[in-house]
Design brief:
Layout: H1 9-26, E1 31-38, E2 41-49, E3 54-59, H2 67-86, E4 92-97, H3 100-107, H4 112-119, E5 122-126, H5 131-149
Parallel strand pairs: 3-4, 4-5
Antiparallel strand pairs: 1-2, 2-3
Helix pairs in contact: 1-5
């Protein structure tokens, strides 16, 4: 069966590798989790550890982010801040990236998003992925781009 051009299963698998990298670096087990912040509000986070009070969102994109991807990261930032506000204690918050180029805007000296991350103690981590995963993500991004141009 052919893979749909917009299929994101490769990136989802890469995000698991990114989370494993972060788990090792931070010394805590991170897992995807739904977090109930109010009776009617349940949010999903890519990486969560309640005992260590760690929240993570992962981005498996390689290369400069597109505007829609930047908006998704902005939503991830807001989501982590909202969860931290609703759950007891101070939480360590991380944006996890597969690539330095994707993380650049959040690490920059002049970007308001980078300053926002620093202001709200959101750390940026760039993971090391295996070559095979990196190649698969690049191939998927190319396929997805080509699929988008046919619409």
């Amino acid at each position: 069966m052919a893979t749909h051009p917009s299929d994101s299963s490769v990136q989802q698998a890469a995000e698991k590798e990114i989370l494993a990298f972060a788990s090792e670096k931070l010394g805590v087990q991170l897992e995807a989790r739904f977090v109930d912040v109010e009776p009617q509000i349940r949010l999903q986070v890519d990486g969560f550890n309640e005992n260590a009070k760690v929240l993570c969102e992962a981005c498996a994109h390689i290369g400069k982010l597109k505007p829609a991807q930047e908006r998704k990261i902005e939503g991830d930032i807001l989501k982590m801040l909202f969860i931290e506000k609703r759950l007891p204690g101070l939480w360590k918050k991380y944006l996890l990236f597969a690539d330095a180029a994707a993380a650049a805007k959040y690490l920059g000296a002049h970007s308001w998003l980078a300053k926002c991350c620093r202001e709200f103690s959101i750390e940026i981590m760039v993971a090391t992925m295996c070559d095979d995963t990196r190649a698969k993500v690049l191939a998927a991004q190319k396929r997805q781009h080509m699929g988008n141009t046919q619409a």
